[in-house]
């Protein structure tokens, strides 16, 4: 008996034939994982949302060239990573100066947080928000490939082989990136979780 077709691939092949309902189904399924990946790399909710829209526009425009040679999610996250790297390079060439008066829209780090629909009591919400900010800060300090590999492992539900394809590494190198990244995060977060003080800041 033939192996069942990956449902995402089947949907993308329908998109290739012009099926907009299939495209909407893929967007609805993957918009949050893509947003999470982009936000963890570009910690601005508005820019992450704009870039996520650009990712799916690229998916739609590239549909006629799509070939089912890997999981759809692998192809999708490759597009997301490439657009994200392009944005980082653009920012490096053309840095944007912060506008006075907008700083109060973020948290203490100046970052806007993507809304979490989990319900917390006020003290729990404060602790959750603070921990998320510290995780974000620790992730931001990782090399790009380590950070992307960890986020794909967490958000994309991809295998090591899939992640290796997205970031352009061997499977063994990908496993090493994820291991080193996780160890770095644990080392960075452990003192904060134990004492409530972020290393090097005294608070």
Outline: globular
- First CA to last CA: what distance? 61 Å
The unreliable regions are 97-128
Mean pLDDT: 78
Total number of helices: 8
Which structural class do you get from the secondary structure elements?
mainly alpha
* Biggest beta sheet attributes: none
H/E topology pattern: HHHHHHHH
**Total domain modules:** 2
- Top CATH class of the largest domain: Mainly Alpha
Q: Any idea of the CATH topology of the largest domain? A: Rna Polymerase Sigma Factor, Chain: A
Strand segment tally: 0
CATH A-level architecture of the largest domain = Orthogonal Bundle
State Rg.
19 Å
Task: Describe the structure in your own words.
Helix 4 (72-93) runs parallel beside helix 7 (160-167) and helix 5 packs across helix 8. The chain is mainly alpha-helical. It has eight helices and no strands. The model is unreliable at 97-128 (pLDDT under 50). Helices cover 67% and strands 0% of the residues. It has two domains: 1-93, RNA polymerase sigma factor, region 2, helix turn helix motif (Rna Polymerase Sigma Factor, Chain: A, Orthogonal Bundle), CATH 1.10.1740.10; 120-197, Arc Repressor Mutant, subunit A (Orthogonal Bundle), CATH 1.10.10.10. It is globular, with a radius of gyration of 19 Å.
Summarize, please.
The protein is built from eight helices and no strands.
């Amino acid at each position: 008996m033939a192996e069942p077709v990956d449902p995402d691939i089947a949907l993308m092949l329908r998109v290739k034939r012009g099926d907009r309902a299939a495209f909407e189904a893929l967007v609805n399924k993957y918009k949050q994982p893509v947003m999470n990946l982009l936000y963890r790399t570009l910690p601005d909710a508005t820019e992450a949302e704009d870039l996520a829209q650009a990712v799916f526009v690229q998916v739609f425009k590239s549909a006629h060239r799509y070939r089912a040679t890997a999981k759809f999610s692998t192809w999708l996250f490759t597009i997301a990573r490439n657009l994200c790297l392009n944005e980082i390079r653009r920012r490096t060439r053309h840095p944007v100066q912060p506008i006075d008066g907008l700083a109060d829209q973020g948290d203490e780090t100046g970052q806007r947080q993507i809304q979490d629909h989990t319900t917390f009591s006020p003290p729990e919400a404060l602790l959750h928000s603070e921990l998320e900010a510290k995780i974000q800060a620790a992730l931001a300090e990782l090399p790009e490939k380590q950070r992307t590999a960890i986020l794909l492992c967490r958000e994309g539900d991809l295998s090591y082989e899939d992640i290796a394809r997205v970031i352009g590494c061997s499977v063994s190198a990908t496993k090493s990136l994820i291991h080193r990244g996780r160890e770095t995060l644990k080392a960075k977060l452990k003192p904060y979780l134990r004492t409530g003080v972020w290393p090097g800041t005294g608070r």
